[in-house]
Amino acid sequence: MDIRLKWYYRLGFLLLLFIVLFVFLKLQPIWLPIFKITMIVVLPFMIASFISYLLHPVVETLHENYLPRWLAVLIIYTLFFGSVSVALYNGIPAIIHQLRDLTENAPSFANQYREWIQEIQDKTSTWPVAFQERIDTSIVGVERMLDNALTRAVNLGMGIINSALLFAIIPFIAFYMLKDYEKIKKAVWYITPKKWRNGGTLFLRDVDKSLGSYIRGQLLVCVMIGTISALSFWFIDLRYPLLLGLIVGITNIIPYFGPVIGAVPAVIIAATISVKMILFVVIIIALLQFLEGNILSPFIVGKSLHMHPLVIMFALLAGGEIGGILGLILAVPIMAILKVSLLHAKQHFSKDVSDNQLM
């Protein structure tokens, strides 16, 4: 009877939670402006925390080899931010130049695109009306998708430029987080209620075990694939090689679908040159996919995620439907955290049931 009553309490709690969420969403006009301001302030700390999380294992390795912590932090900090600064210093002007050139040539690309559309419509004019309507709908959908993607990219770039001073403090925040890691860890430990400390430590340890090496390895693979693709596009004289390589590298973080998404802009640009160039781009993307899937990812990332491919594909479909490209990028990490959360919740509820049965 006590166990049944406990399940009633849990169902009541879930119902109350849904009501609170409904009211919370209805009050969105009140809390959304406050949330945006808070995110602007908190975002540099979140990015710095992520960078510190990536670099911390390397700092710990050097520190365990009898190197003072401050010196280990200084070495890794200098190497990481130094290489990032050099890449940004040399890469940003080139990317801006290629973006400007792409913008200036956009009308000619648009005219060629219209010629393709007209040719497709002429060739399908004798097809049944249902097929023509389906093709027209698909064309409109692709146009809308490309327009939204370009608008988001421009807005993101302008937002980063406008927040340059805010992001300039990230290296300093990351340095102090790495330097005072143990102090921050102790502070979090003391402000956490005692009954949550052990469970929270185990939860964070399992999340790090499941997700940490995957994120670090996947980022390294993306940097390598983006660099190789940019050099390959430059070698075959494809226009905007740095910009297209950057797109390929970023989208490569998406399992399965990433290479296809990253290849679309390169194929579109190649189509404005020649059929031969399209063939070269397709061959490069296929070789990069083979390199990433059979050499780089197994060697660098391994099977650290411990998730079935069907689960990953479900997460990607759900993430893409909810959040677009950003949802695709965040889908797998969120699913990994959700998996660990469900396992811990199952253990917690099983323990409660066992304790009740003993009583």
Structure description:
- This protein is an all-alpha fold and 359 residues long.
- The protein has a domain at 36-145 and 171-191.
- The protein has 13 helices and no strands.
- The protein has helices at 2-26, 28-64, 69-104, 106-123, 129-162, 164-168, 170-179, 181-191, 194-235, 241-251, 258-271, 275-301, 309-358.
Record the SSE blueprint.
Elements: H1 2-26, H2 28-64, H3 69-104, H4 106-123, H5 129-162, H6 164-168, H7 170-179, H8 181-191, H9 194-235, H10 241-251, H11 258-271, H12 275-301, H13 309-358
Helix pairs in contact: 2-3, 2-7, 3-7, 9-10, 9-12, 9-13, 10-11, 11-12
In helices, the fraction of residues equals over 70%
The major β-sheet equals:
none
Query: Which value, in Å, is the CA radius of gyration?
Result: 25 Å
State which percent range the strand residues make up.
Answer: under 5%
Poorly predicted runs are none
**Distance between the amino and carboxyl termini:** 13 Å
Structural class: mainly alpha
Number of strands: 0
Count of helical stretches: 13
Order of helices and strands: HHHHHHHHHHHHH
Write down the overall mean pLDDT: 77
**What would you call the shape?**
globular
InterPro entries: AI-2E-like (IPR002549)
Protein name: AI-2E family transporter
Transmembrane segments: 7-25, 31-55, 67-89, 156-178, 219-236, 242-261, 268-291, 311-338
Pfam families: AI-2E_transport (PF01594)
